[in-house]
Amino acid sequence: MPFTFQSRLPATGTSIFSTMSALAKAHQAINLGQGFPEFDPPKALIDSIHEYLKKGLNQYAPSIGLLSLREAIASKLEVFNKTRFDPEQEITVTSGATEALFDAILAFCKQGDEVLIIEPAYDSYTPAVLIAGARPVYYRLPEPDFHFDAWEFRKLISPKTKAILLNNPMNPCGKVWTKSDLDQIEQIVLEHNLLLICDEVYEHIYFEQAFNSMLTYPRLKGHVISVSSFGKTFNNTGWKLGYAVAEAALMAEFRKVHQFVTFSSFTAAQAALADQLADHSWYDALRSMYLSKRNVLIEAFRTHDRELKPSEGTYFQLLGMPSNALGDLEFAEKLVKEAGVAVIPLSPFYHDAYDPKLLRLCFAKSDDTLKEGARRLCQTLG
Ligand code: PMP
Ligand code: GLN
Q: Is 35 in the pocket of ligand 2 (CB under 6 A)?
């Protein structure tokens, strides 16, 4: 008799990112779907990881991360956020942002708690909340501009609300939250004594609208955990390294979970990243490069008579699909087969499969790939 079990995640299937990448491969399509850069990490970073591997950094790192990397993160925070966090007690290196988000949710949310998720939401949030035994409560940002309505948002808060998950800059819609949006979030967090779990993995990819980290709000110290990912910043998503920052008491609790989810992360890569972080010029160059790529993509659509509302941040751009077309999942499948371009439909970012008839394009690709992708999409869209 087969083993019987009750799924903790009965509604969860294969992620849309894996699905679309597999489809792109099967049809040899241009992959503007899953978010990963088509270009290499900095050469110095690759050289230095080789060196550290040869020097023998092949055993476990300390659970909280190499001190050199935590110190480098602390000084980056001082330079870019003008805030001081203690590398001994307030910074932990994790195996990517996904792990850090999972640890934070598991550490602080439990049965009986409600967690506010802002949609369209990154796909790992809901499963993590459900595994923690808490209840996700959803607030949908209204398109086309995805503006935040604090009045509507407040209606969802109950005595059970424990935490808010905030992604800024925001995947998939490319929103960068304004200072006034964030001030309202601060007010809500303080009024209701909540935890704010901030997914700031695209912190260095923003354009006309300035990015403000929630770590820069002094009154929120003790209420915020911020999560970052090196993968987005240094073109090495496959290394799966990131980190979390929070005030000491929160971080101590976070570390208890981290210790038993992964214990520690890839040692040589941490040492190499510690060296890389000393180069503060990287971030401006990264932002300029992505601004240029976003513009190349928009211009390519314009030459085919399609005007797109420019993404404010992340390396994602939205594209509208015909409102009378198929559902977005079927439409995305059709585009892979007929246009030879993989994109990401938006409905998987909504708990109720709401379909705003929008597609996400990743522009972390060569200019030629972007131009050819736009040409093919426009030809099929008509
Ligand atoms: N949050 C968001 C919004 C993301 O887009 C991603 C990944 N691309 C992650 C978290 C996960 O980051 P990592 O690969 O470092 O786990
Ligand atoms: N975050 C990436 C994206 O949004 C995908 C990461 C993954 O495949 N899990 O495309």
A: yes
